[in-house]
Write a structure and sequence with these properties.
Helix 8 runs parallel beside helix 18 and helix 18 packs antiparallel against helix 19. By secondary structure, the chain is α+β, with helices and mostly antiparallel strands. It is elongated. It contains 19 helices and 23 strands. 48% of the residues are buried.
Length: 608
């Protein structure tokens, strides 16, 4: 195992030799190397002043060296060189992340990197952002890692430097508060959470929801253990851990592949239950359930999830708005239907008046049980009763349809995420823009500048108000509030979700990547990226590894979020892509979708 430690003055000569070997790896001639030597020499007396560290393997061999030079708020990555025999083994990545960590501790706000062109791909992949900078030539570097001091003088005119910058940051405050700043055990009880509502609108695939349990990998920024109902590919957890810089993670999978009760399946294995609950780490579920309460030793409060009901949430929104203080928020009217006949009569009346209607069940997941019905659709179906016959059984709510902004004039579906901690304090996480098609959630994007400016204040204010009400009601845990935007620059709240969500996963990944790669990440989660074929596990690993490399070349990060859908008769993959700007995120998503569609070319047509 490679670790980072402070360099010693007595090592200065050996480290200088390592630096020169690393630089020479690129085939520079003897004259160039000789010209670089004075600048790259490490003197014993400057080891501490330049904050030089080394990467050392378990046998004490030094594999790389890095320095953090200058004083806050501006500093430079002065050296980053890897022993040629260790290039490509993650040593440079380890050293770079250590430099960012130490920069945060020092109070550095900007880290400047003047890199040889051979190193530009590495720094781009590590999240550094190319900026205007010097073009004079300085010391060349190893293929994966290297730079020279910001103030190094020009030596020759053979190579133009590429300047990069990074913005070192600590883990954001809400993420530290979420798990107490430490690691956690993640319990993928998605199916168990959904099943407790026994809603007729949940079809078998959503009631099981075991694929979405893979999102347990992202319940907090740095998990200690994952507890999953279905077996997951080993290559998946290894790639995710590498992309997100995890420490070692224990994976307990295949525990409840054919039934929703994951927490009871864990309790049926006393040794495993004792291991998970006795480690002194917080247990984080997808959502609260009675079985999770038994596993975690937390009391189950009757009614603590009552605002998962869409009618209860609507009533809560109405009470908040009745107190005033939320300009820019408008609540659509909602009418519970006593039965299908009553629903048909009300739908027919609204159709006759030329009004569109949203039909909702009390509970649903990802848009399940929600249907937008226009007058044209009612007439095409042969009347309101014909429309209702095609919907899932169970109680229905009818809601006023809120017309959205014109095409291209702004996002339609937004969400606010936050959580209530164990002491009842409400923490704001942020807002996201969701991808919703025909009432079904497809994904979301989080990060700086994602929300339109006009929506930021009303969304945050109303979301926080909902959080306070949830805290007062006794709820503890993650929540979100979903909104639709109308054409007049107002937001209409539509439901709450008292659990983790797709956007919450994106927020977690953004928080982690900001620490590893510098502040300001945009993260997009796409729930279902269609694959061209059912892939064997080895080919899925190969596809994901290739996508990680391809996105890195763009300056983006690819993380496979849901791998097990790749083995379904109609195969798909859930993914996360991240970068520091929207154009790069868009390019990464385009790359991923194209590669996924082409993935089946070697396997022939889909078979069922």
């Amino acid at each position: 195992m490679v670790k980072v430690r402070a360099a010693r003055a007595a090592e200065a000569g050996a480290l200088t030799e390592l630096v020169m070997r690393s630089k020479a790896h690129w085939g520079y001639d003897a004259g160039f190397l000789a010209a670089c030597a004075p600048e790259l020499r490490i003197d014993p007396g400057e080891v501490t002043a330049r904050r030089i560290v080394v990467a050392e393997d378990g046998r004490g061999r030094v594999l790389g060296v890095a320095s953090l030079e200058g004083a806050p708020p501006l500093a430079a990555l002065g050296l980053l060189f890897v022993e040629p025999s260790a290039i490509g083994q993650g040593v440079g990545r380890l050293l770079y992340r250590d430099v960012l960590r130490r920069a945060v501790e020092l109070g550095v706000r900007r880290l400047v990197i003047d890199a040889d062109p051979h190193a530009a791909g590495f720094y781009r992949a590590m999240g550094a952002v190319a900026v205007a900078g010097p073009t004079d030539a300085v010391a060349a570097t190893a293929p994966a890692d290297a730079t020279t001091p910001v103030d190094a003088p020009a030596l020759v005119d053979a190579t133009a430097l590429v300047r990069f910058e990074a913005a070192p940051v600590a883990l954001t405050g809400w993420a530290r508060a979420w798990t107490g700043g430490g690691r956690a055990v993640h319990v993928g009880n998605v199916a168990e959470f959904n099943a407790q509502f026994a809603d007729a609108s949940l079809d078998r695939g959503q009631a099981a929801a075991h694929h979405y349990a893979c999102l347990a990998a992202f319940y907090s920024p740095d998990p200690a253990a994952l507890v999953l109902p279905r077996p997951v590919p080993k290559g998946w957890t290894e790639l995710v851990g590498r992309q997100l810089g995890w420490s070692e993670v224990e994976v307990y999978d295949g525990l409840a592949a054919g039934e929703p009760g994951l927490c009871d399946a864990v309790r049926a294995r006393p040794a495993l239950a004792a291991l998970l609950t006795g480690a002194g780490l917080p247990l984080v579920p997808w959502g609260r359930t009675r079985p999770f309460g038994r596993l975690a030793g937390r009391p189950w409060r009757e009614g603590e999830l009552r605002y998962e009901s869409k009618s209860a949430a609507h009533a809560l929104f109405g009470r908040i708005l009745a107190d005033g203080g939320h300009p820019g928020i408008v609540l659509p009217a909602q009418w519970p239907a006593a039965g299908r006949w009553a629903a048909a009569r009300l739908l027919a009346a609204r159709t006759k008046a030329g009004e569109s209607t949203v039909l909702k069940s009390e509970h649903g997941v990802g848009g399940s049980g929600t249907t937008v019905v226009t007058p044209e659709r009612v007439r095409a179906a042969g009347g309101s009763r014909a429309v209702l016959r095609r919907l899932p059984r169970g109680p229905l709510l009818l809601e006023e349809y809120v017309a959205g902004p014109a095409e291209g004039e702004g996002p339609r579906d937004l969400t606010y995420d936050g959580f209530v901690d164990a002491e009842g304090r409400v923490h704001e996480v942020g807002g996201a823009v969701m991808d919703v098609t025909d009432g079904c959630y497809r994904g979301a994007t989080v990060g700086p500048g994602v929300l339109p400016a006009w929506a930021e204040k009303p969304l945050a204010g109303f979301g926080a108000a909902v959080g306070r009400e949830l805290a007062e009601s006794g709820y503890r845990g993650w929540f979100d509030v979903d909104f639709v935007a109308d054409g007049a620059g107002r937001l209409a709240p539509t439901e709450t979700n008292l659990r983790l969500t797709g956007p919450s996963v994106a927020f977690m990944v953004a928080a982690r990547l900001d620490v590893l790669r510098g502040a300001g990440h945009l993260v997009r989660i796409a729930d279902r990226v269609e694959l061209g074929a059912r892939l064997p596990e080895a080919q899925l690993d190969e596809l994901c590894a290739g996508l990680a490399r391809g996105c890195a070349e763009l300056g983006a990060v690819f993380v496979p979020a849901i791998p097990t859908g790749a083995f379904e008769p109609e195969p798909w993959l859930g993914v996360l892509v991240a970068a520091h700007d929207r154009d790069t995120v868009d390019a990464a998503e385009t790359l991923v979708r194209a590669a996924a569609r082409a993935a089946g070319a070697d396997f022939g047509p889909l078979t069922r």
